[in-house]
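In response to reviewer comment 3 from the previous cycle, which asked for concrete evidence that the modeling workflow produces usable outputs, we include below a single protein chain processed end to end. The sequence was submitted unchanged, and the resulting structure tokens are shown without manual editing.
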Amino acid sequence: MNLEQLRGFVTIARVGHFTHAAEVLHLSQPSLSRQISTLEHDLGATLLNRTRGNLTLTAAGHALLPLATRMLADEESIRVEMAELAGLRRGRVRLGAPPTLCASLVAEVLETYHVQFPGIELQISEAGSRLLLEQLTGGQLDLALIVTSEHAVTEPSLAHTELLVEQLVVADSVQHPQLADGPVDLRDLARVPQITFSPSYDLRAATHKAYQALELTPNVVIDGGEMDAVLRFVQVGLGAAIVPATALVGRPEVQAKELRASPAKDPRQVQPSLERTIGLAHRRDTPPGAAASAMHQLLVQTAGQLAQRHAQISLRS
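The workflow returned the following structure tokens.
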């Protein structure tokens, strides 16, 4: 058994097809087939069910996949670590973050990091916290910013540090405001035209819970947008939106208004949270390389600077 055989197996499991996997690996299909047959012989187990037009993993294949993925990630970590010994002149950092943080905290960090370490390749995965945790566990990321108030980091192979607490605010247009100045109550906000996010956003679920706790139905005029589109719609006056405070960093055309929770009808009901906690997660079982460690330090430093500049953002105590 060798790493090339494992890489072939993991690629086939990912794309679900011998021919496509061979193209990804720049191999001929017969060569890849021989690799997998040799691997199955060495392990004494059939890894793939091969039926015409359908390729699936056997029970042994399912058992091997996470182990093979981790072994390949460890190999990559060794290669990157050796390159970084040259003084951070070469290497790679793979960072994941939700869309709201990519446009604010991550953008500031990458600008500074690239100036300090121009030879380091930066790879960004923009996704929801659940998918980012899966990618981190599978060795596809070195670091990931996670909304820990919505997704607890429970995987034993992962560790995390909580960085920030940010308020949920109402984004309103500066030129075409939907709301009067001052704090906004959820009951009043429900009557204002609103723009909501795609179901893939953790924020959509949090907002829905807040309204549901008050038995309110918001006046949604545009549903299912991505972050940049939602803020653009807000800017031109199509409606307001509930967003995390970090989403409005560097966007002077959109103003943040304080969001207040209304008392629930049932006093025994838990009040909806109008804030979220951001954590920085990494793999516990694989020591971070020098480039990833430098990125970790810069993320913590920049988070502190954001908290100093914005009243709705605070460091996690």
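The domain at 83-164+278-315 is CATH 3.40.190.10 (D-Maltodextrin-Binding Protein; domain 2). We consider this sufficient to address the reviewer's concern, and the full set will be provided in the supplementary archive.
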